[in-house]
Amino acid sequence: MYKAVLVLCLAGAAFAQYGHHEHHDHHEKKHEEHIVDYYAHPKYKFDYGVHDSHTHDVKKQEETREGDVVKGYYSLYEPDGTERIVHYTADKKNGFNAVVERKGHAVHPHVKGSTETFFKHHQEHHDHHY
Questions:
Q1: Are 82 and 103 in contact (CB under 8 A)?
Q2: What is the pLDDT of residues 57-99, one digit of tens each?
Q3: May I ask which residue range the UniProt record assigns to the signal sequence (predicted)?
């Protein structure tokens, strides 16, 4: 059984190599007329965004590329409530450059007693040793 399968596979391979060759020559003449550019000019544009009101995850990004020059920005909201916006460029001559901007006023939650308790405990401990 295995010998029969092996013979069929070998016969199929031989047919594919030799029997298909004439058909391949006909198509090859067609392909010679078509010029293929293997170096395509790099160019793209994309954008992405999230706005989840349940988790307060809000961010976005846009980027473009034209040849060897990439330009874009992204923004997101920090845990302190400020928005961070980063504009960036990259190219062969200047490398990667970014400008970071913050918008809004940072808000930090006040935990009652955290610093007062620390300093009071520190002072009591310090006074006790002298």
A1: yes
A2: 999 999 999 999 999 999 999 989 999 999 999 999 999 999 9
A3: 1-16
